[in-house]
Design a protein that fits this description.
The longest helix is centred in the first third of the chain and has 18 residues, at about 100-115. The chain has 12 helices and 15 strands. By secondary structure, it is of the alpha/beta class. The strands form 4 sheets. The chain has a 7-stranded parallel sheet. A 4-stranded antiparallel sheet has the order 3-2-1-15. Strands 4-13 form a two-stranded antiparallel ribbon. It has 2 domains: about 5-115 and about 355-370, Enolase-like, N-terminal domain (Enolase-like, domain 1, 2-Layer Sandwich), CATH 3.30.390; about 120-345, Enolase-like C-terminal domain (TIM Barrel, Alpha-Beta Barrel). It has helices spanning about 60-75, 85-90, 100-115, 120-125, 145-155, 170-180, 200-205, 225-235, 245-255, 270-285, 300-310, 355-360; strands at about 5-20, 25-40, 45-50, 130, 135, 160-165, 185-190, 215, 240, 260-265, 290, 330, 340-345, 355, 365-370. Bound molecules: 2-succinylbenzoate (OSB) and magnesium ion. Magnesium ion (MG) binds near residues 217 and 263.
């Protein structure tokens, strides 16, 4: 196959409910949508779900656009490939910039699965007809407001609730949620905000009493040693997110016993090709995984659902329904959850129609490279 045309759309959607993590609050997202056209006129879509500011990782929408236009697109256009991993070799020598790469890798997989006349999930090796969905709930202005959000999503049937925590918003909100929902699968995510101190160790040990299914990324992204030491002192499993951006990091995580669970994010790891490899490695190592999210629009969300259908994804993924995030998604039908289960599409490619007109109506800038079709 050969990609002959690439379009980039910087598209903005407002969130239905503002979202605050330990680093900042957001009310809308700008994601870069990637459209491939091959020589036969087939289409593939991908999504660069980088945040606008470099507070989750060092990438931003602007850096992704720069890397895409300067390094990835010139290498992709006209390159002959048979499988997505072959196309991924064209950007392999670019260090870092995983979010940017992920958008292109996703477009390659969606084009590739469409060309095979199969669903994306089947092409990736998926085995599930539906996947269990969790929700990720941001920091709220009060514990009452948080309980309202938790209640709404537990009532909707979501299988797991993740609470964002930071200093001053950790033990008390968790205590309140646990008291109100004693049997609910609950976990917390610190997005790397805590310092490696005795005080943090004590705080994390006090979270042990709540029977959380995991504590996600308490320490900074590079601090495997601190995670390993904390894990040896906790009953609750530590789950790594920001720390693991490539397969070597999984090796480090395993060698140091820096966590017992891995959040595999397509965006953070540079695409579906690496995400599938990460799934295979962790499965062989006996490390359970789930698929994390970056508030993806429908294209990235469809990729997350397809990935979550692989056998190693045994914990509920952050693949909530489109309406948890956006009033109107950019795909039809939108992603829906039925009692916390999301059906894996069996139609060819992404399994959803991409709403190009709706994308254009919400697009801030649009660029085209190569042949136009
Ligand atoms: O740490 O998983 C995270 C959103 C933005 C940045 C980081 C994270 C998140 C989420 C959202 O938790 C998960 C979702 O897409 O529902
Ligand atoms: Mg996280």
């Amino acid at each position: 196959m050969k990609v002959v045309g690439v379009s980039l759309y910087v598209t903005r959607l407002p969130l239905v409910h503002g979202f605050e993590t330990s680093s900042h609050r957001k009310t809308h997202l700008d994601h870069i949508l990637v459209r491939f056209t091959d020589e036969s006129g087939l289409e593939g879509w991908g999504e660069i779900a980088s945040p606008s500011s470099p507070f989750y990782s060092s990438e931003t929408v602007d850096t992704a656009q720069l890397i895409a236009t300067k390094y990835i697109i010139p290498a992709v256009i006209g390159h002959e490939w048979e499988t997505p991993d072959q196309l991924a070799t064209t950007w392999a020598r670019v260090r870092g910039h995983e979010f940017a790469k992920a958008g292109f890798d996703m477009a390659a997989w969606s084009l590739y699965s469409a060309s095979r006349g199969e669903s994306l999930a089947a092409t990736l090796g998926g085995v599930r007809e539906s996947v269990a969905a969790g929700v990720s709930l941001g920091i709220e202005t009060s514990i009452d407001a948080l309980l309202t959000e938790v209640t709404r999503h537990v009532d909707a049937g979501y299988r797991r609730v993740k609470l964002k925590i930071k200093q001053g918003w950790d033990v008390e909100p968790v205590r309140a949620v646990r008291a109100a929902f004693p049997d609910q699968d609950v976990h917390v995510d610190a997005n790397g905000i805590y310092d490696d101190t005795d005080e943090t160790t004590e705080l994390m040990r006090s979270l042990d009493q709540f029977g959380l299914s995991m504590i996600e990324q308490p320490y900074g992204p590079r601090n495997f040693a601190a995670h390993a030491q904390l894990q040896s002192r906790l009953q609750t499993p530590i789950c790594l997110d920001e720390a693991v951006v490539d397969l070597d990091d999984i090796g480090t995580m395993i060698a140091l016993e820096a966590g017992r669970i891995l959040n595999i994010k397509v965006s953070r790891m540079g695409g579906l090709t690496v995400a599938v490899a990460a799934h295979n490695i962790t499965r062989d190592a006996g490390i359970p995984v789930w698929c994390g999210g970056m508030h993806e629009f429908g294209i990235g969300r469809a990729a997350n659902v397809a990935l979550s259908s692989l056998p190693g994804f045994t914990y509920p993924s952050d693949v909530s329904a489109s309406d948890k995030y956006y009033e109107r998604d950019i795909i039809d039908p939108p992603v829906t959850a039925d009692r916390g289960m999301v059906r894996v599409p069996t139609d060819v490619g992404l399994g959803h129609t991409v709403l190009t007109d709706w994308i254009l109506q919400n697009t801030i800038s649009h660029e085209h490279f190569g042949e136009s079709r």
